[in-house]
Amino acid sequence: MIRIVARPDGEAPEAIRDAWIGLELPLVHPEPINTLGFGVLTGPKYRWLEILLCHLGRAQKVSGYVVPADEAIQRLAAKDPAAAMWWKTNAARYITPGAHLVFDLPACEPVGR
User: Fold this and answer.
1) Which residue pairs, CB below 8 angstroms and at least 24 apart, start in 73-80?
2) Which whole number is the average pLDDT over 83-94?
3) DSSP assignment letter at 35
4) 3-state SS class at 29
5) What is the pTM of this model?
6) Local structure of residue 7 (DSSP, 8 states)
7) Is residue 92 part of a domain?
8) Residues 21-66: pLDDT tens digits?
């Protein structure tokens, strides 16, 4: 479990990213990971294009904690329904069941270790 303690990096508006602060989120992996990713607004709309752009070196390096997207959005909705609606409206492809979100290391604090 992590607690969001600072505004996460990302392309969402600052108020939407600030809404995450204070939430505790479950982890997919117990440790942070280093991976490649894309912005939720400017990233490719298709998985095959993500793969291609990763191979071409066009993805961003990301270090952070991986959380299940659908559960994260449910918890966000309980705290700030408008912020959750922003995600559902503007980045729906990133919050489907089985999808993951990565929160950057400086925004997170491990809980219960």
Assistant:
1) 75/23, 75/24, 75/25, 76/19, 76/20, 76/23, 79/19, 79/22, 79/23, 80/19
2) 90
3) E
4) coil
5) 0.88
6) P
7) yes
8) 999 999 999 999 988 777 777 676 777 777 776 677 777 788 999 9
Q: What does the pLDDT read at residue 56? A: 79
Is the residue at 15 inside a domain?
yes
**What local confidence, expressed as pLDDT, does residue 79 receive?**
97
d(CA 70, CA 25): 11
Distance (Å, whole) CA 62 – CA 26: 19
**Tokens at 25, concatenated:** 């989120």
Q: What are the start-end ranges of the E strands in 7-112?
A: 24-25, 33-37, 60-68, 100-104, 108-110
How far is the C-alpha of 87 from the C-alpha of 108, rounded, in Å? 20
Alpha-carbon span 107 to 103, nearest angstrom:
7
Domain that holds residue 99: 2-34+64-110
pLDDT for the residue 60: 79
Is the pLDDT score of 108 beyond 90? Answer: yes
How far apart are alpha carbons 110 and 28 in whole angstroms? 13
* Domains: count for the chain: 1
